[in-house]
Write a structure and sequence with these properties.
about 80% helix, about 110 residues
């Protein structure tokens, strides 16, 4: 999820929380005074930002994992090229077997 998508989701979540907050007015458990209203609404909004931060952290983790996988793939290919350049066919076969058997580190 891109940063822009996170912002869009955050906006939707904040709007929903504000709507839910005001939907409670006129109900038996409605806030009694401005201080309580402020506290409840602030907690709802903070929850939205916490949720957005969790989403962003998950996205960063996925991006880092993809970068690591790509780096490992490049290293594997470089090792394979080195084996071929050094005419080390047995080592090249082992590297290819790792890849074919899905035992490569990526």
């Amino acid at each position: 999820m891109s940063t822009n998508q996170v912002v869009i989701e955050l906006k939707k979540l904040v709007q929903s929380e504000i709507g839910d907050f005001f939907a409670g007015f006129g109900q038996p458990n409605e806030p009694k005074d401005a201080e309580e209203m402020h506290h409840i609404l602030k907690a709802r909004i903070e929850h939205c930002f916490d949720t957005a931060e969790e989403i962003r952290c998950e996205q960063i983790t996925l991006e880092l994992a993809e970068d690591l996988e790509l780096t490992l793939a490049h290293q594997h290919i470089d090792e394979l090229h080195e084996c071929i350049a050094n005419e080390d066919i047995e080592a090249a076969k082992r590297l290819m077997a790792d890849f074919i058997n899905d035992e490569a580190p990526f």
